[in-house]
Design a protein that fits this description.
Helices cover 76% and strands 0% of the residues. It is an all-alpha fold. It has one domain. The chain is elongated, with a radius of gyration of 19 Å.
Length: 93
């Protein structure tokens, strides 16, 4: 059972990060106290909740900043390479 508990904990962290980062990137409100139902099993739900609540502001900011920097860098590279980059990537596939 301990493996399932760890999975539920990890799932709680992962879902919280995904949902909160998505909300912040699209400027939508997010309520971290609105914990979704993960399991009807009390222990599994409890571990999910622990994982959900273990996410810190630092975790969220790291994800948001990394996504923002990635999008900015991708945009700059796209401008530098222009349409030619699309042709290269299509030809390599």
């Amino acid at each position: 059972m301990a493996d399932n508990w760890a999975w539920s904990y990890d799932r709680g962290r992962t879902q919280r990060l995904e949902q909160e980062v998505k909300a912040r990137m699209s400027s939508h409100p997010f309520n971290p106290n609105d914990i979704p139902l993960h399991s009807h099993d009390g222990t599994m739900q409890s571990k999910f909740k622990e994982g959900w609540l273990s996410v810190s502001e630092i975790d969220i900011r790291l994800r948001v900043d990394n996504l923002s920097h990635y999008k900015q860098a991708r945009g700059r590279v796209g401008k530098l390479l222009g349409e030619h980059s699309r042709t290269i990537s299509i030809n390599k596939v």
